[in-house]
Each structure stands twice: as C-alpha cells, then as structure tokens.
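During the reporting period the student researcher (J.K.) took over the structure-prediction task from the postdoctoral fellow and processed the backlog of single-chain submissions. One of the processed entries is reproduced below for the supervisory committee.
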Amino acid sequence: MKFEPDSLLNLFYKLPKNLVRCFSGYNFSWQILAMVLTYILAVTGFDWAYFQFFRHTFLYTFSFSAAVLGSILPILVPGFLFIDGRIKKDPEKLNAAFALGQAAILASFVSSFYKALTGRMYPPQFLDSIDISKVFRFGFLRGGVFWGWPSSHSAIAFATAVALIMLYPKNKTVKYLALLYAFFIGVGVSISIHWFSDFVAGAIIGTVIGMVVGKSFLHRSSTIARPVSK
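J.K. obtained the following structure tokens:
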C-alpha cells in the first residue's frame, strides 16, 4: 500500500500485530517480571513504607503535577509533531507522531486490561489508614480501569519515550529528554496516586510496548522517501 504521510490511518499501522508481539516470547517474560517484582515490593511492605515516607512532604504535593502532565503530553506531543510535520511536509516527523500515538494507545489499552483484572487498591489520598498496598480485588472490573496496577501514566510515558528513542537512536538530546520525561512522570505518580510497584510494573510494560512500536515504525521509516534538500 502506498504510504500517505499525513493519513491518520498510519496511527493503526500494524497495531494488531504489535499488540500480539507485546505478549509474545521474551516480551511476555518481561511482563511476568513486572508481576513478580510487584509481589515482592508489596509483601515486603516496601510499597507502604515508600508511600508513608513521602506522604507528608513537599514532594507529595508537587508530584501531582506529574499526573497532570502525564495525561496531557501524550496527546500534545504527537499532535505537535503531526502538525509540524504536515506543515513542513516532513514524512519522518509524521511517522514519529503516529508511532508515539500508537505507543500511547497500546500502553493505555494494556494497562487498562490489567487493571480490569487485578483491581488493586490505590493509596489513600486524604487520610492515613492501615496498610492497603497488598489489597488486590481479582476478577473483572472490581476496581475499575482508572486506578490500580499497573500505572497507566508510567506505561504510557515509558512507551512513548522508548518509541521515540528507537526512532532517533543517534540523537542524544532526544534520548535524555525522553528518559527524563518518563522517569519524572513515573516517579511522580509513584509518590502520589500510585504505589511504587505500580510505577515499576508500568515502566517495564511500557518499555516493552515502546520497543515493539518503535521497531515497527523504524522499519517503516526506512521505506519513506525523504524530501530532497535544495
């Protein structure tokens, strides 16, 4: 099929196959690791101790900004790349926009799928209480899909960051800014609206998704005819 750089259909390029790849072979092994680490961090009491340590600090209040930015930037950044790429007729930038968009979609879907099955209790937001970090309500939609394990903010942040790094492997500025963004979002939500293990699991799952999507769109970028410089 002929490549049309500005077609929104590019957002779904190999999406079903990329979703399957996230659960295939070693990629699924990494997700098992995320589950194992969550179990260890929860049963040893680390999650609760981490939450209590930051609960009454300035960082706890400040960290809510990570939740806000983590909800907005995955939309704004691909949108900006798309508009800029379309104006400049830059197919490579358009390809990056669609890659980030797909990475965010898959990370949101996968993390919501896990949340629907695990129903983990989220940290208390207003009053201290007994340790609820070990509470999981396994089933279907027993805890909704907006809170719980893993952290969607972390999964989306790492998925988009890693996908971007895969597309621009030689650009150190992109690499450092992408990683800084991902860890700011992940650590930020781990202090406020998620347990630490939610962040760890989200980071692992998001990295897997980012590598799958990034590799897929990197291959596509090699087939895109770049504009000839005058």
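The committee noted the following: The radius of gyration is 19 Å.
J.K. will present the remaining backlog at the next meeting.
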